Amino acid sequence: MIILVMNAGSSSLKYQLYNMLDESVLAQGRVERIGMDASILTHEPEGKPDVRQVSEILDHNTAVKRLTDLLTHSEHGVIRSMKEIDAVGHRVVHGGESFKHSVIVTLEVKLEIRRLFELAPLHNPPAMMGIMAVEANLPDVPQVVVFDTAFHQSMPQESYLYAIPMVLYRKHKIRRYGFHGTSHDYVSSQAANKLGEPLASLKMVTCHIGNGASCAAIRNGESVDTSMGLTPLEGLMMGTRSGDLDPAVVPFAMSKEELTINEVNSMLNKHSGLQAISGFSSDMREITDAMKDGDKQAKLAFDMYTYRLRKYIGAYAAAMNGMDVLVFTAGVGENSVVLRQAVCENLTFMGIELDPELNESKSKETRIISTAQSRVKVLVVPTNEELLIARDTYKLVLEAV
Ligand code: ADP
Question: Which residues bind substrate (predicted)?
Answer without folding.
Answer: 91
